[in-house]
Design brief:
The complex is a heterodimer of chains A (about 160) and B (about 400). With about 160 residues, chain A is mainly α. Chain A is built from six helices and three strands. Chain A is globular and about 45 Å long.
Chain lengths: ~160, ~400
Amino acid sequence: MIENHTEGAREIARRQAEIVEEFSMFDDWSAKYEYLIELGRSLPLIDPKLKDDTHLIRGCQSRVWMASELRAGLIRYTADSDAIITKGIIALLIRSFDGSAPTDIVSAELEFIDQIGLREHLSPTRANGLLSMLKQMKYDALAFSSRPDLDKPTHLK
Amino acid sequence: MFPILSTTVHGKPLIYFDNAASTQKPTPVLDAMDRYYRESHSNVHRGVHYLSQKATDAFERARETVRTHINAFDSSEIIFTKGCTDAINTVASGYSTLLKPGDEVLISSLEHHSNIVPWQMACARSGASIKVIPIDDSGTLLWNRTLLGPNTRIVAVNHVSNALGTINPIELIARNCRENGTALLVDGAQSGPHLSIDVRALDVDYYTLSGHKIYGPTGIGILYGKRERLDQLPAYQGGGDMIKTVSFQSSTYAEPPFKFEAGTPNIAGAVGLAAALNFVNSLGIDRIAAHENALLREATERLSHIEDLRVVGTAAHKASVLSFLIGDTHPYDAGVLLDHQGIAIRTGHHCTQPLMERLGIPGTARASFAVYNSTSELDVFERAVRKAAQMLVA
């Protein structure tokens, strides 16, 4: 499944497998969503300065703010949303990718989202900002992988 | 009667409380459209052949059904559009030519984007400006005849608010508009399914309806216009069916309603809408309204006992709509948690961003009721909202 067997790619796959295993323990929807809500509540607070229009990913339903930067060759993501379930899913995406190398994020698989039954939240028609955030995470990774001299993605310059 | 309502959602029987967005379709509507395509379909208004006549008859019968339903004087005052939005755009587009710099268009704080944006476009093209009727915190329109000035050319206001359910005082507004020589357009997208509408008793100039919100198909709507208004209103789109004569230099247009029906119309949609109106009238709109009002009262009462929940929109006169918020949580969260319990509601700004800004909220969770909803569904709804509140408010 993972064609690029770098250590970083294996790390992303490992974290995603861990998430899938955690979610397999929930036998009903409400336990799963209680966990998501808990994850949303414990998501580290975003720097209020980053909650501006530049970092806003507008959804029709909920809004998402996301920022990324390159530190020592690894991407650090930070994000927030006004909806707590959206925030819970943000926490999962960040946990999956944060601190990885740009090229590993670009090539990372996203099957874990289907496996934990949250694909509906990343449907293009949901308009909660999550799919756009996921795309932005990958775009930023792509931008960093082609311009490792930058510390912020080019679209923010 | 409503086949889709036997759907199972996340393993639970569907409870459909998203009726203000769109209603489900009864079998008479489905059958009428199916039968139309199987037995009567051809293009309308041009052929001499058997099927063309049959299709034209069905289409014009549908127009007559609509005329009767809203008590218009003449069927030439009934224009088939592709929806309520299209109907408003037809009028607003005409006004972009009729309006002059200095003229005013008066809309309300309760309007759906589709009764705001077309007027902004008309004002941008003509140099006219928009004025807004304010509301109070309950979502009641603060109507005052002094809002009408010497330059107010048209008032565009909804009959029932889609976000809050407020019923607006259309009779009074119509009377004041008449006294001021101002035209009145009423957006009836939300009133159509819940109120008995008599355009002559209301004495409005334009009234718009949505087909799919009143148990009919999507892609069909109604623009009612007083004949003398429609004669003055410039045509919206050019094309076939709307002309009298065409040369390469110029064209002359057909009389209303055809002047506003360029291109092959949505014939099956019109047939389906007529079947939907017949369905509504077979039950009686007053009985439907009484049923929905009872559901709205009971649902409001039940939800108002839930801690941390607040009802948004508490006007004295309301139809079908119950908007609410749980604590300071985002309505999206409530919507997701209700969906997992089999309940379909709408969350978000409901295409009324200026209204949400006025109320200082990002949006609401909105339950809206229709003829097929029941008090036993309210039991499930109340339990589901309580569970969502308990999960969301720590």
